[in-house]
Fold these 4 entries.
Entry 1:
Amino acid sequence: MDEQRRLYLYAALFLPFRKTLYEGGKARKLNCKLGLLLREIKGFWRVALMVSALLYPSDINHAEDISKNNIQLDKKRKVFEMVKNAIVGLGLEEVWEVKPLVNGKDIMNVLQLKSGGPVVKVWQQKLIQWQLAHPSGTAEDCLDWMRQKRAKRS
């Protein structure tokens, strides 16, 4: 039962993306948010997406005939396929396995810190978001962005 409950919760995580995923949206923001979600749920994403697609509103009426309900189910399958193909097309299907471009030591050097800690962890999260928003970016691009952000705060 716990596994089933966890799967439903993962599916619910896709629900806020309905407008963005199912109806279009801004690419970088989508890449980042979707990448972060997929990093959390990992290999469960396909099943969670299927459940989310099945939860997607439709006109299925239990009193109607089966052929109309089959048309609605086919629409839901197409939504699933469209979103799955978008995730694969964005290169996010195994995003949780992607290694960060920049390590903690590099972050500490840019921030001029003597030891790690919560500040480094916060910057690691920011850099993962940057990496998701800039999939073709390099480690040097990432460090340049970090230096710019740091300079703005100083």
Entry 2:
Amino acid sequence: MHYLLWVTLLGLLAGSYSEERPHPHPHPHPHPHPHPHPHPRPCKSPPQAEGSLVAAAANGDIYGLGMYVYDAIGQRIRFGDFIQYKNQTSHDDVLLLYKEQVMYKINTQNKTCIKRKLTATFHPVEIPENANLLAQVVLGSSSGPGEGLLVNSWSGEIPEEEVKYLLAFTEVGCIPISIVYYRPQTGWIATSFFNIDVGIKHPSLLTPPPFCLNATMESGGEGGFFSTFL
């Protein structure tokens, strides 16, 4: 059941990226509050990142928690997760290679692979140009230094894919905080992102391991990013 639903959520893909995690400064910044931007604009997130996410379906049947490695330059995503689907628990490790149109489900312990055709289109993590700005808000508190995060909330549709979405990205850095995403095939899926670092520290995770190289394409097995969940 785990190959029907991971379609485009990370293709549009709470925390923040950090090119370098800042060290505490001995003297607080003289301006302790997040500064609103008068004209928030659609933006593109950093093209490479590693982090974690949690996703859940509106009907409560699906819950997933995992790490991911994201490479928009090479159009590759690695996702290792814990998934609960209708009271059944599984641990999946999936590599999506969009340029090759191939997805691998990897079992490192047994050194086995399931190889399937990847039917989804890769979309970089971004706010689409035609998205509608809903509001600019502070997550947390604006009462003291370091207590709040300035975030822009957006909504929109992709008519050709019958998609509706609600997005929350940081004003500074264009970092995804949450994505709520609807498709007729899946219903509403809500995803939150956290512990994110800009760049890829483990590039080998985006290459099929040697024991996958001889895997044959399964007939009738097609999927996309969210098919890991069903």
Entry 3:
Amino acid sequence: MGRRKMEIKRIENKSSRQVTFCKRRNGLMEKARQLSVLCGSSVAVLIVSSTGKVYSSSSGDSMAKILKHYEVRHADELKTLDLKEKTQNYLSLKESLETVQCKLEEQNVDNISVESLTSLEEQFKTALSLTRARKKELMMELVKTLQEKEKLLRDENTVLASQLAKMGKENELLETEEERAMLLENNNNPPETLPLLK
């Protein structure tokens, strides 16, 4: 007798849901381990439960190494996602500024209440502090990126300097060997002398 096919939908019973979560989590982690062993690949599994508890498993390489590899491979995609977040944040700030501007441009500017002005002031302060915080964050990211580039350039400079020094030593050895060869050649062929007068 075969197993019946289970419909995939949220389990309403809390205890059944927890049991299913534990069994399937363990099964998923076991399958990931098997994939790593069978194919010789690095596998990382990261699961966050509905209560916020984090479960992780890695095989092949450490979780940190796998995540670093993923970050390097998908840096462009992550930057694009980060840019989308920044754009959405910018749009929300822009919308709030437009709302404030609309309120200020109303015809009854003289009749605006103190509470309304206080609310507008708070919105301005919030928008300003968010903008400053975002600007500071972007500047820090830029500084960090430039520092990383500087380190890479210094490392490359060190490698190039060592290669140049090595090439200089090789050239000196070649010059020394050429001089030795010339000396040996001169020793084998005695210098010509003037014939003696008879």
Entry 4:
Amino acid sequence: QPPLTAINHYLTPLICEFQSFWDTSIRFSQTYNYPEGRLVKCALILIICDLLAARKTAGFAACSHEHFCLVCHCTQSHQGYGDTNYHSWKHRTDTDCRSAAESYCRAATPESRFNEFNKTGVRWSELLRLPYFDIACCVVVDSMHNLFLGLIKEHFSGILGI
């Protein structure tokens, strides 16, 4: 597996293409329903992968980090693994994530980046270059992958203690 920040190097060319498809659109000279052609926009709607890949791709911290949740602002020390009252959880928003990622990018040294990351559990992801992509909602954990690997049982029994 690539290191945490190396995944952005793999994403960069793909994100550049999606940016181009979104900004300038694509002109098809002819289609079955549109013989005169059609202008279309292309977008990356969802990222669907297992939990570890979702965290790396979107720039979120690992499950063992203080900011373990990629959905809300729960931390291990406040509203941690045992708190199942989801009504009290403050959900992450795209704005929150983008702000934290930009702070991470603005940090001048590796140590200051590490400190910024530890404040929020969010680092920069190339996905954030897509202006329409909601990083808080459009990263989906593949449930079948989790069922197949037995991760759901481990998560609920071993981690949450439910």
